[in-house]
Design a protein that fits this description.
Elements: H1 2-14, H2 16-21, E1 24-35, E2 39-40, E3 48-49, E4 56-66, E5 69-77, E6 82-84, E7 88-101, E8 109-131, E9 136-158, E10 161-172, E11 182-194
Antiparallel strand pairs: 1-4, 1-11, 2-3, 4-5, 5-7, 6-7, 7-8, 8-9, 9-10, 10-11
Length: 198
């Protein structure tokens, strides 16, 4: 999680010039679950595997710059470890960076449509720690490039505070650990809009 925090901090730092000209900044925290096909892959024990299920907390932020267009980023991870083929503990983490279009649907609602790229990081946990010069970890990562398409509906319930039902489709390249290259996350986020003259 330290690496994800560092990545998020660096992205915010590099986007600081964008903040000054942004018409709107939105940040949210949410929870959801993942659906994905199940099936078999080339495993010695013949077990079926799937990425589906579990609670996925997540963070998101976007900057609407001009004409309701902007940039956004999301990160979501499985809160608890799952068992891969009933044996090996693992946790998927999804993060993506997108272009976003957020048209207003009246005074109390805004749609969100986004598309972009990102990665899936599968962390397979081992009983041993592996140490480098900077840290020690007890997992091995398998990282996959992915495409992302998502959308949501911001419903303003009190001032600048909103709830957002949302859906995200992940198109995962070379996802050889699982029987499908697609996964879909559904969730609900609570957030806040920082905007002058909102």
């Amino acid at each position: 999680m330290r690496k994800l925090t560092l990545i998020a901090a660096l992205c915010i730092l590099f986007l600081m010039p964008t903040f000054a000209h942004a018409q709107e900044f939105d940040a949210a925290i949410g929870f959801g679950t993942l659906t994905a096909p199940s099936g078999s892959v080339a495993l010695a024990n013949g077990e079926n595997v799937t990425e589906r299920g579990g609670l996925y907390p997540g963070f998101s932020a976007d900057f609407i710059i001009k004409h309701r267009l902007g940039v956004s980023g999301n990160v979501a991870w499985r809160a608890s470890r799952n068992l891969y083929a009933g044996v090996l503990p693992y946790r998927p983490i999804f993060y993506d960076f997108n272009g976003i279009y957020a048209p207003k649907l009246g005074t109390r609602a805004t749609a969100e449509m986004m598309a972009g790229i990102g990665a899936e990081s599968l962390r397979f946990y081992t009983p041993q720690f592996q140490c480098s010069a900077f840290s020690c970890t007890n997992y091995v990562s398998s990282n996959h490039f992915m495409g992302h398409i998502g959308g949501g509906l911001r419903l303003y319930v009190w001032g600048h505070m909103f709830v957002r039902p949302e859906a995200h489709l992940y198109l995962i390249h070379n996802n050889s650990e699982f029987p499908s290259s697609q996964a879909t996350r559904f969730g609900l986020s609570i957030g806040y809009t920082f905007a002058p003259g909102f």
